Amino acid sequence: MPELSRRRALTAAAALATVAGVQAATAPSAPAEGHRQNSPQAFDEVYKGRLIQGRPAARGGHHHHGAGYAVFVDGVELHVMRNADGSWISVVSHYEPVATPRAAARAAVDELQGAELLPFPAN
């Protein structure tokens, strides 16, 4: 078997990158409006002794990041944002994306460890 030279390795890597780029460019993508149609359901529950709520919200203010959805912990709004891949993050657990706003609220309660959620200042 011939020894793999640096030139052959780079050529193979370039070919693979080209194929991957072509596949990504030709893959069907969901329209941007598509993920808004999958709006999460409202919820209202007690989680670890804290009242967490979520519901569709009217557009405006700083809610635009949350794709028209508002989340509250003990009546205080938890600023949430929907990522391009459909996952959700909050101002409390920003580096741990979760699948739903309910999961974001639960993660915030876990992270707060009993501390109060302070209101997020609007721009």
TrEMBL record:
Span of the signal peptide: 1-24
Keywords, ordered alphabetically: Copper, Signal
Pfam family, one: MelC1
Domain of life of the organism encoding this protein: Bacteria
One function term, GO molecular function aspect: copper ion binding
InterPro entries: GriE/MELC1_sf, MelC1, TAT_signal
Keyword Transport: no
Biological processes per GO annotation: melanin biosynthetic process
Coiled coil: none
Family under the similarity heading: Belongs to the melC1 family.
Record-given protein name: Tyrosinase
Provenance organism: Streptomyces dysideae
